Amino acid sequence: MKQAPEHLVNLIEPIVEGLGYECVGIEYNPHPKHGLLRIYIDSENGILLDDCTRVSHQISGVLDVEDPIQGNYQLEISSPGADRPFFKISQFERYIGSTVLVNLFKPLAGRRKITGRIEKVTDDIVTLQEGDQVFEVPFSAMSKARLVPEYLIEKGGRSGK
Fold it and tell me: I want to staple 8 with a disulfide (CB 3.0 to 4.6 A). Which of 4, 100, 104, 121 is the partner?
């Protein structure tokens, strides 16, 4: 997954959770001139702009003091949205029965993308059903994974082929 380096996760996740939000995941895309640190937050009541502002203010203060990132970067706080990204194996467990779009580092059965229903999660293997095919995908083989919203499935969108 495109999770941020461990030192950033260990710094940021407790702050987000201390404010009463779930830290869904953290993406970090370094770049000398315009890097991006994106933090996905969620709560039972959903996320509003005020929630993002509150988390941004707290995280900004800590990042200014700790200075864990070299160079320039933009801090972005976001709700995960209907097509929420997955960063942890536990997120697949929580969404068993839902459809996900998974991108792979290397082809599996000739495929780099699989759009399938999560059937089960065993250790670090996610079993996906796509039509009549079943794929057992190691979590470590996934470069990216997102939930496919129900409204897209009903319209026949977001195919992994």
Answer: 4
Look up residue 39 and give its amino acid: I
Burial class (CB in 10 A: 0-12, 13-18, 19+), 86: buried
Tokens of 73: 């970067």
**37: which residues sit within 8 A by CB, 6+ positions away?**
4, 8, 26, 27, 28, 63, 69, 73, 74, 75, 76
Q: Hey, which residues does 22 pair with through a beta bridge?
A: 42
State pTM to two decimals: 0.86
User: What domains appear along the chain, each with residue ranges and CATH number?
Assistant: 6-78 (3.30.300.70), 89-150 (2.30.30.180)
**Which positions of the chain have pLDDT values less than 50?**
158-161
